[in-house]
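Q: Could you fold this chain for me?
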Amino acid sequence: MERQHPARTAPEEPRELQAVVPQDPLEHALASARAPGADAGARRTFVDQLATLDLGSPRATADRLHALLASGELALLRASDGTSARAMAVERLLALGYPYALEVAFWW
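A: Sure. Below is the predicted structure, expressed as structure tokens.
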């Protein structure tokens, strides 16, 4: 007869020591900008956040921007001054420099 051992699990850290996963700062702004009847301020806020997006590391920032571009959610979204959200996301990727600028792809 083979003895089975209970699965070993790492002890759980106390709540105050557990890492807090930051919420995506674009999530709420994108929902507001895409909402039916969204005002110019909501769209401008979202585009401004794209321009300065920093998720703690260039890789995380680039990955989020790539995901937004691939999703197509930025295709028709423009700020009141005509600034394209898609163009701003590409501009931010280029600003991240090497190697992220080389990863820019064009979605038509």
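A (continued): Residues 26-103 form one domain.
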